[in-house]
Write a structure and sequence with these properties.
With about 400 residues, the chain is of the alpha/beta class. The chain has 2 domains: about 220 residues, Glycogen Phosphorylase B (Rossmann fold, 3-Layer(aba) Sandwich); about 170 residues, Glycogen Phosphorylase B (Rossmann fold), CATH 3.40.50.2000. An 8-stranded mixed beta sheet has the order 1-10-9-8-7-2-4-6, sandwiched between helices. Strand 14, helix 11 and strand 15 form a beta-alpha-beta unit. The longest helix is centred in the last third of the chain and has 21 residues. It starts with 5 loop residues before the first strand and ends with a helix. The N terminus is likely disordered.
């Protein structure tokens, strides 16, 4: 089931109003990263559609320019490791900057805390999510953190403010919508809060046509290469993946390598690999800006996340012929078809199940080739254009509500 675009609105929201200018609130304007790339691509699409955008941000790490694009800087956050202090500062400084804007039709927050927003795109799950998908001890620890750690309580409060203040909500996947509606029951109404699901695109620099006409350069090698992209050890499921690699090593004499992009091996990581007998099987690549070169290293990309709003890396890998193995609880699983263009990990906490899927890919060349070709075809249907279309629909809803004089 590919990219089922959803729009849930009350019949009264049938306006085709389009904003003239919007303010986009975010922490960093950059084309690198997940949330950042999503916001950057949406801004590009809005500008192409004729909507002027003022980006309100703390950091600017992009040289992108456009005649309809302006920037407003938020006061830099204090240099501290205290997350609560940073969240409080961003809330205060962001609101002060937004109050200086008087010529925008809508304020759109990219999951940036604010008391002033008409539309919000949520990029991270609620603090309750790990309690539903984690190991038993992670559930207990997460519930304790939610009760006693100030940053957790503040983040939940700020998420609630965004949900209440916005006229329409945007989620990158249905699993995100379900999480927020369960955690904040008032969203169910009456009346229910209108929302859209705007799946991310996934394109990098190369075009789909160019990518589809080239084969993966590592398919003929004796070593089967897997790829993990991310910076989370447990939430991203790297702990389960490493356990699966140890099981895989014991099950087959065939050679394989796991490349880890986004993390650099620390002393503890090297010790862990040694204790698990994975020296020579796992390579940490650190942060990588040129993902094209990273994708060329592998034949399969693995995303065994417990907590994953969407996950663009598997789609990017599919565009380059990589076969994705993805946990069923991740948002990107909604865009995939198990056994057709991907393999869905039914239990995100099961290392033996993941190891078996990896072994199947290594051992069954017909299975690998079929999934590889279908992955390319499926990924060609996923675009940022649809993301922008759904975002504009959310704007139309917000404008209808705003002009009617109703409060969220």
């Amino acid at each position: 089931m590919l990219m089922r675009v959803r729009l849930l609105v009350d019949p009264q929201y049938n306006s085709c109003m389009k904003p003239r200018k919007i303010a986009m609130l975010m922490r960093q304007f950059s084309a690198h990263g997940g949330l950042e790339l999503y916001a950057h691509k949406v801004v590009e699409g809005l500008l192409d559609s004729g909507i002027a955008v003022t980006v309100v941000c703390q950091e600017k790490d992009s040289d992108f320019s456009h005649r309809l694009l302006d920037f407003k800087a938020i006061e830099s956050a204090p240099k501290t490791k205290n997350k609560r202090v940073r969240l409080e500062h961003l809330f205060r400084a962001g609101n002060e900057t937004l109050q200086e804007l008087s010529d925008v039709d809508l304020i759109h927050s990219q999951h940036c805390p604010s008391a002033h927003c008409d539309v919000v795109t949520f990029h991270n799950h609620t603090t309750a999510r790990l309690s539903k998908v984690g190991l038993w001890w992670e559930v207990l620890l997460n519930e304790k953190k939610r009760k006693i750690i100030p940053a957790y309580r503040l983040r939940e409060m700020q998420d609630e403010i965004l949900c209440r203040r916005a006229h329409s909500l945007i989620f990158p996947a249905e699993v995100m919508k379900e999480d927020f509606f369960q955690n904040f029951p008032f969203l169910e109404g009456p009346p229910p809060k209108p929302y859209v699901v705007a799946y991310p695109g996934a394109s990098l620099q190369s075009t789909i046509t160019e990518l589809s006409s080239t084969s993966n350069g590592h398919q003929s090698t004796e070593v089967f290469n897997f790829l993990f992209v991310g910076r989370g050890f447990r939430k991203k499921g790297l702990d389960i993946l490493l356990q699966a690699c140890a099981i895989l090593k014991a099950r087959t004499p065939k050679k394989f390598t796991l490349f880890i992009a986004g993390l650099r091996a620390k002393t503890a990581d090297k010790l862990r690999l040694s204790m698990m007998g994975l020296d020579g099987y796992v390579q940490y690549l650190g942060f990588q800006k040129d993902m094209e070169l990273v994708y060329q290293k592998a034949q399969s990309i693995i995303l065994p996340s417990r907590v994953e709003p969407f996950g663009m890396a598997p789609i990017q890998g599919m565009q380059r012929g990589l076969v994705p193995i993805v946990s069923k609880v991740s948002g990107v699983a909604e865009a995939l078809q198990n056994g057709h263009d991907s393999i869905l990990l039914q239990d995100q906490l099961s290392a033996p199940e993941l190891a078996q899927h990896m072994l199947n890919l290594m051992s069954d060349s017909a299975l690998f080739q079929r999934l590889c070709q279908n992955a390319k075809l499926s990924s060609a249907k996923i675009s940022w254009e649809q993301t922008v279309i759904q975002t504009i629909k959310a704007y139309e809803i917000a404008l209808t509500v705003k002009n009617s004089g109703k409060t969220p």
